[in-house]
Write a structure and sequence with these properties.
Length: 456
């Protein structure tokens, strides 16, 4: 499904990209927060280190000690995670916070310059790891001028805890951002693919005959494609015109031989050669029908977008012609069509369809043929109803097939097929039915055109 849908592929690619980007952002923000928190913790420890240095003095016994320690209550709670320690160089432990209990901090064996602050990761009580800052200072002469090393440390797990809390608060926000970005991506894909939908709609309009070209009203990226398609349509129109011209030449070239053949048939009938005349008449009719079919096939690709045929006027004109035939003169004809009703089809093509249908109805009707038309589901539905024997439902497909014959009467079996071809060329359909005995209906459905004024 993904491979067959450009929209879905873009949405999936966008969603994956968003998730990857937000995942990297979450990791990066967590790292930045940890570094920021580490700097803040280091600054706090340096402040405590300064306070520790200021508190060194002699106790009541005259020994060196931290007489005024930092006043953070965590220094008084055993194993609280915040510790300080003072050692003499050379020598040993001078003093330490109560929070260390009986543990002694062991800073790295380096030689920090006097007054500078060094940062370390050192072991703490209970197997913990501490972030520690240390400073090496020389005491004033009143305190003996000794060199001491000051260390203040804090459990590094506090930093990990802070990072975890930050991440837990960050993830819901990033999830909301991801949702908004996915929605924005879907909107972007919809807007981005809108020109393709417009191309599809224009192509459908071209196929249905409502327009002839795509035009240039597209974004710069789609316009070259539209231009190429329009170029193909121009080439197709030229080919269609050539085909129609050849079909017309064919029809014109056969017209004279068919007229000569008709004259020979009449002379044979006058001489009493009726059997031969009937055979030749059938051959001539077959040739004429084949020419008509080829002309209809040439019209299949020549649909005009602005074509409109007055259904009532065309139906009446065809009825007037068929009524003058020997079979049509004996029938009662009824045309019930709104004069303003119009179908999107060339009038000559509608006349061709009705001519074939009415000719077929005239040959099979007993007394009456009715032509009606109405709007159904937005289309024009034209019906030719006769009181003939009808066609068995199983034989309807054969009747619409080229050369399909379901009786042995006159004709070539091409009339209904030609009518169906012409209707299909104008995005219409031809259906036969109901076909029960005593009632035969041929229904032609065509796209509706704008109503006509005064039937024209």
């Amino acid at each position: 499904m993904i491979a067959g849908s450009l929209r879905l592929r873009l949405l999936v690619a966008g969603a994956v990209s968003i998730l990857v980007a937000l995942g990297v952002a979450a990791f990066g923000l967590s790292v930045l927060f940890e570094r920021h928190a580490e700097r803040g913790m280091t600054d706090e420890l340096v402040v405590l280190l300064d306070r520790l240095a200021a508190g060194i003095d002699r106790d009541a016994d005259g020994k060196l000690a931290v007489a005024d320690p930092p006043d953070d209550p965590r220094f008084e709670k055993p194993l609280s995670g915040l510790y300080w320690q003072v050692t003499r160089e050379p020598g040993g432990l001078v003093d330490r916070s109560r929070s260390l209990w009986d543990f002694e901090l062991t800073p790295p064996q380096d030689e920090p310059a006097e007054g500078t602050v060094h940062r370390h990761r050192i072991a703490g009580p209970g197997g913990t790891q501490l972030m520690a800052v240390e400073r090496r200072i020389v005491l004033p002469a009143r305190l003996g001028g000794a060199t001491v090393r000051l260390v203040v440390g804090r459990d590094a797990a506090d930093l990990a805890t802070a990072r975890a809390e930050f991440t837990s608060e960050l993830l819901p926000f990033l999830a909301l951002v991801a949702l908004l970005l996915v929605i924005a991506s879907a909107v972007q894909v919809r807007v981005g693919l809108a020109p393709l939908a417009a191309v599809q709609a224009r192509l459908a309009a071209i196929r249905s005959g409502r327009t002839e070209r795509l035009g240039i009203a597209f974004p710069d990226e789609v316009r070259p494609l539209a231009a190429e398609v329009d170029g193909l349509l121009v080439q197709r129109d030229r080919q269609v015109e050539t085909a129609r011209a050849r079909a017309a030449d064919l029809a014109h070239g056969l017209k004279t031989p068919l007229q000569v053949l008709a004259g020979d048939i009449d002379r044979l009938k006058q001489k009493g050669e009726t059997a031969i005349a009937a055979d030749l008449d059938l051959v001539g009719e077959t040739m004429r029908r084949h020419v008509e079919r080829e002309l209809a096939r040439a019209r299949r690709t020549a649909v005009a977008a602005d074509a409109a045929a007055p259904v009532g006027a065309v139906a009446q004109r065809v009825v007037d012609v068929v009524r003058r035939t020997p079979t049509g003169d004996a029938l009662d004809w009824e045309v019930t069509v709104d004069p303003q009703l119009a179908a999107r089809i060339a009038p000559d093509d509608l006349a061709e369809i009705l001519g074939n249908l009415l000719d077929n109805a005239a040959r099979h009707a007993r007394e009456r043929v009715a032509i009606t038309a109405a709007i159904e589901d937005g289309d024009v539905v034209l019906r030719v109803i006769d009181d003939g024997p009808g066609i068995p439902a199983a034989l309807v497909p054969q009747a619409l097939r080229r050369g399909g014959r379901i009786d042995s009467g006159p004709g070539t079996g091409l009339g209904l097929a030609i009518a169906s071809d012409i209707a299909d060329a104008w995005n219409g359909t031809l259906r036969l039915g109901p076909t029960e005995p005593g009632r035969m209906t041929a229904a032609v459905r065509l796209p509706r055109a704008a109503p006509l004024q005064d039937g024209r």
